[in-house]
Amino acid sequence: MLQDIRLALRRMTRRPLFALSAIGTLALGIAATTSIYSVIDGVLLKPLPFPDSRALVRVNALKGNH
Questions:
Q1: Residue 52: what pLDDT?
Q2: What Cα–Cα distance (Å) separates residue 56 from each residue in 36, 37, 46, 59?
Q3: Dist CA 64 CA 66 (whole Å)
Q4: What CA–CA distance (Å, rounded) separates 52 from 34?
Q5: For residues 66 and 63, what is the distance between their CA atoms, to the nearest angstrom?
Q6: How far apart are CA 45 and CA 17, in angstroms?
Q7: What is the pLDDT of residues 4-40, one digit of tens each?
């Protein structure tokens, strides 16, 4: 495994622009996945922070001539 790491480092120094673009692409993908999971976890998976949150109801009052 040490040889693989050395080879990867040598190749990264030969083509630094490619290495930076690959690392940047991975970083963006990981960040996007983490962000989306955090939103889904907070909005859909966790229950609301109220006692008996299943009994909450939303009431809208219409304004105008309806």
A1: 79
A2: 26, 25, 15, 10
A3: 6
A4: 30
A5: 7
A6: 40
A7: 999 999 998 999 999 999 999 999 999 999 999 999 9
